[in-house]
Each structure stands twice: as structure tokens, then as C-alpha cells.
Amino acid sequence: TPAPGVFRWNHLHGSLARFEGATTPRQFSPRGVTLDQDAPLLMRNPEQYYDWVAQTNMELPEVLLVPLHLKGGDVPIGTLWMVSDTYGHFDGGDARALTELASFVGTALRILRTEERLQAALAEQELLAAELEHRVKNLFSLTENMIRMSRAGASTADELAQALTGRLYALVGAHGLMRRNFAGGTWQDAWVLLGPDSEN
């Protein structure tokens, strides 16, 4: 992102290892051709066609690329490269072997991404559980305060029930005002609903 995006070289070995993490254009590279065809590609001397390869001062007699799919995915997400320092090194057997290797890599990547999603989901659940615990504790504290305040001004059970019910309805009303972002109401409206005894 943004489209058309770029490729990034990862897990390089041998003479290309120094380019680990480098980026290349999506629409002007052997990788782009490989993904567009979704098939193995054998190229000779890509530095003669791609100026960004030539700028590295590398000579690449042969490059074999195969598309890399996540296991079960239809759209390739990248390519697997092999580079030879001689001409005529690769043949159909190499293409098949590299395609099979790409399949194993795709399976490993899918497992890794699934594990990452599970870890993220677990972390989210733990966060939600902590937030729920906090809110439940606040609810218990609020309920205790409402009972205490109602009891202080009531002389009978009926008066206690009436005062406590009134405060509950006031709390529901205040909550409704806040959920509407105080459309048609203010914090002062919520305070009136709760009553001056709700300060604690």
C-alpha cells in the first residue's frame, strides 16, 4: 500500500544477503511478471532490462522465480527466488522442486499468520475481561453507595425502596443522556436527574 505497492526482499542468503529488507517496484520487476503469470519464470540477466537491478552492479546470469501462495489461497503473495552464477544451470526439475518448496513455505506462513491472529484475539479477550472486571467492581461500588444514601434519608422500608428506585431511574436517565452525547441535554441535566445526594 498504496497501490500498486512494492516488494520487499526477505530471508536472503548467499551473494544477495546484503539486500535484506530492500524494496523493489511491483510493476517493474521479475517478481511482478511471475505474479501476473502465476507460474514459474526463468530469466537471464535481469540487470540488462531492469535499471534498478543494474544500479546494484550485480550480474545475474540466471534467475528462477516461482509464485508463493499462502496454503489454500488463490492469490500469490510473493515469489521464491533462486539465482545462479552460471548460464544453463536451471531446468524443469529445478522449477518443480522450487514450486514444491514454495508450497511448504506457504503452509508455514499460513500457520504463522493463524498463530498471530490467535495471539491477537487472546490479547483482546484478556483486555475485555479486565475491562469487564473493572466495570463490575464499579457497579457494585455504585450500588452500595446508592443503598447507603437511600437508607440515610429513609425511616421505613417503603421509603428506602422508593428512594432507591428513584435513584436507579435517575441513573438510567443519565446514562441515556450520555449515550446520545447529551443531544438535547447537558451534564447539568444529568446532575438534576441524579439529584444532589448522588455526589458520593
Secondary structure layout:
Blueprint: E1 6-8, E2 23-25, H1 30-37, E3 41-44, H2 51-54, E4 62-68, E5 78-84, H3 92-152, H4 157-179, H5 187-194
Antiparallel strand pairs: 1-2, 3-4, 4-5
Written overview of the protein:
By secondary structure, the protein is an alpha+beta fold. The chain is 52% helix and 12% strand. It has helices spanning 30-37, 51-54, 92-152, 157-179, 187-194, and strands at residues 6-8, 23-25, 41-44, 62-68, 78-84. A three-stranded antiparallel β-sheet has the order 3-4-5. The protein has a two-stranded antiparallel ribbon with strand order 1-2. The longest helix is centred in the middle third of the chain and has 61 residues, at 92-152. Residues 190-200 have low confidence and may be disordered.
